[in-house]
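ingest -> fold -> write
write: protein_1
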Amino acid sequence: MLELTIDESDALIKVAHALSSKVRIDILKLLNTKKMNINEIAEQLNLPVSTIALNIRVLETAGIIYTELLPATRGTMKVCSRVFEDIHMDLKMSTGYGHKENMYQLEMPIGHYFDANISPTCGIITKNGVLDPLDEPALFYHPERMNAQLIWFRKGYIDYRFPLQLPPNAKIQSVQFSMELCSEAPHYDHNWPSDITIWINDTEICTWTCPGDFGERKGKLNPVWFPTEGHTQYGLLKTWKINEEGSFLDEILVSQTSLKDVLVDKQKHLNFRIGIKSDAPNIGGINLFGNQLGDYPQNILMRVIYS
């Protein structure tokens, strides 16, 4: 989901402009279920290629679609795909809490974990391909892991450390983590539940049962070299948040664990762990996506609201 507030006026104007044309809405409809190149879109809408190219540029500038150049019979072709399923615009004026000036945001590449304790099946795919050998936990400390775009394992955990660069007297109101992930099944299986747990500062926050491992279509961001048959392709974008009231999953209260249970005064970093517990009812593994694979162009995103 693309979330915009009235405080983000430049982005709001770009998105509103992109959605203000029937031609661009028709393009988004065509991209609802599959990727298409510019010539295919022009043919479907019975419009000149130049007109489609201009409108594609507007949608891409707004961040609503993603384009990539792929080999064609003659030269290359620009292939388009939709980035977001939903767009949410919050037009309420901020009163300080949650104002852009009071938000600290950091995106952590998925390979930049500082510790791992995992069990096979497991593996890492970077932007250059698969790290060999597969199913070797020791490989999770290979230097090339820093370039990971897909990480998977059956059970265990990986740990990240997020720096907190906040003003000296800042009071944290909420901490939020979002990422794209799914279960890890042989090949893929939409009915493969997995109990995925997150921890903040070694305190368990929430366990979410992912319904399955998704691979019936190509991920929207996946490059041409990424295997298409019988492989995981994309995940679900999930958001965990903790504030003074408790812990939330996609804005639904799931636990009474609150900020006072995890924060330490004058703390300079947050430890974030994601994994599968050894005694979980559904040990179905995990696939964690980077910003160049799957459906969503982001890594692990931390957002801190403070006053």
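write: protein_2
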Amino acid sequence: MTGTSPTGTPERRRGARRSGTTATRVAFGAGGVLLVVVAWELYKAIGPATGVMIGDLTVLPRTTDLAMPHVWDMIGRLFEQSGNGRNAQPVWLAVAQAAVFTLGVAAVGWVVGVVVGMLLAILMQRFRTAESAVLPWIVLSQTVPLIAIAPLVRRWGAQLEFGDFTWESWMSVAIIASYLAFFPVSIGALRGLNSPDAIHVELFRSYGVGWWKTLFTLRLPASVPYLLPALRLAAANAVIGTVVAEVSIGLRGGIGRMIIEFAQQASGDPAKTWAPIFGAIAVGLVAAGFIALLGVLLRRFRRGEVPA
């Protein structure tokens, strides 16, 4: 009769290790948030009201209630009313609605950026001349100030006419988000597509396997460890690009515009100013969570991720 080890089958041990790793990550995440809260309140308690300055340079902020509200005041303000009359609603609900809007626009930008980045990577991998010609422009594209091109994208989009099609302002924001998202995808995917060992590529070639089949059966699976970190960066870039573009274009309904509107009330209601900032953080966490879920689905190809 075959004996069973006290720790169970290898599958159970691997499952236990994964559960332990997940619990550790959650504990570290919660500990990090708690550390930030403690550091905030500790500095507010012992820091100078005028802030820490070296000469004329402010190194650390002021500790007044206007500049640094207590954490419990910021959280409590989320559950109070915002607006007057029929438009009155809890602050958290207004922030949640704005966060959903921003998340939707960022998701569109992320998808467009991923598609464009993957197509560029495939093109550069297929043709060495294309890599030499396109790659420098891809790198150069990220040196253009985002806040400068946002109004231009909106103006160009407003001039497009396709029958009854109407260019909406949120589409300009999505284009700007994709502009930031495509860069890490194109670079990471190119590295991944070129990552298979030469012996494996030559084996496919010796069996007469075409380029397209080699792409789907060898190069794309091999690119997953490189692609996942790039997708994380693309998701973060899409969220940042969306929020900044909302501010630059003045698009209403999103987190970016809400940050500006609530900041105008900072002198009379400083705790409320932080509500949309919490919303932006939540949008980023949801985006990161989606990429983590995608990584779980592609777990069989994740032999070892490579930093982007």
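write: annotation protein_2
The chain has a mean pLDDT of 86.
The longest helix spans residues 211-249.
pipeline exit 0
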